[in-house]
Amino acid sequence: MVIKRKSDREIEIMRSAGRIVAGALAMAREIAKENVSTEDLNTRLERYVLQKGGIPVFKGYRGYPKSICTSVNEEIVHGIPDQRKLRIGDILSVDIGVEFNKYVADAAITIPIGEISEEARSLLQVCEESLNKAIEKVSANNKLSEISRSIQEYVESKGLSVIRDYTGHGIGRQMHEDPQIPNFVSKELLRADEILLQGMALAIEPMICVGKYDTEVLKNKWTVVTKDRKLSAHFEHTVVVTENGAEILTI
Ligand code: MF3
Ligand code: CO
């Protein structure tokens, strides 16, 4: 495993990529309302990214057809925007990656559509908080597994489950670089644990659910859903490891 460390010059470029991602997600929060289709969101966010001089990196990645992922309710990740209209009570995960000047930033949020159930509200809150707590563990000389452990312990302490089939990742010139960042601790992770070093860039992305963590991919070959079709949420930030903490690039 080779975890590349970014120079100050590279980090500065990734900040620009991150700002475009953050702007796009802020726009998603504004426009994701009842009766808006996920395709509408894709169109608007794609236009925003291009106008800012960015490239939506998901489009064409392994044949992925759109610029963003929109995953509704039991959909965990990689939902494909289409004519489906959002409904009051839905939760919508929006995931977007942007390349700017050859470097990538990647982030996701889950948005409540109108009034949502108490179960959904608490799912979103725990997911976002698990990301914040994980970012607090990021600092030079801390271990990669501390990120995973912090997410798993917090989420499970709230009676929720952590998805195991998909992970966070290193990021830089490529959207996916070493290391993988699982949202749970395993023997494999501990065996291959890494010390975080200043300049490493990480996309940390807890995906959590109300029921069991088993997943299934729909017939479209992309959309990942919970097997039990219970609700799932996803929050993600791209961060860079600093001497005494983390800098979040996607805010
Ligand atoms: N944010 C996702 C990830 O980190 C990427 C979406 S996959 C794509 O894996 F195919 F849609 F690009
Ligand atoms: Co990602």
UniProtKB/TrEMBL annotation:
Family annotation (Gene3D superfamilies): Creatinase/methionine aminopeptidase superfamily
EC number(s) on file: 3.4.11.18
Listed Pfam families: Peptidase_M24
GO terms for cellular component: cytosol
GO biological process: proteolysis
Cofactor(s) required for function per UniProt: Co(2+); Zn(2+); Mn(2+); Fe(2+)
Residues holding a divalent metal cation 1: D95, D106, E236
Residues annotated to bind a divalent metal cation 2: D106, H169, E205, E236
Record keywords: Aminopeptidase, Hydrolase, Metal-binding, Protease
Cofactor comment: Binds 2 divalent metal cations per subunit. Has a high-affinity and a low affinity metal-binding site. The true nature of the physiological cofactor is under debate. The enzyme is active with cobalt, zinc, manganese or divalent iron ions. Most likely, methionine aminopeptidases function as mononuclear Fe(2+)-metalloproteases under physiological conditions, and the catalytically relevant metal-binding site has been assigned to the histidine-containing high-affinity site.
Domain Peptidase M24: 12-243
Entry binding sites for substrate: H78, H176
NCBIfam families (alphabetical): met_pdase_I
Family: Belongs to the peptidase M24A family. Methionine aminopeptidase type 1 subfamily.
Biological role stated in the UniProt entry: Removes the N-terminal methionine from nascent proteins. The N-terminal methionine is often cleaved when the second residue in the primary sequence is small and uncharged (Met-Ala-, Cys, Gly, Pro, Ser, Thr, or Val). Requires deformylation of the N(alpha)-formylated initiator methionine before it can be hydrolyzed.
Subunit description: Monomer.
Protein's recorded name: Methionine aminopeptidase
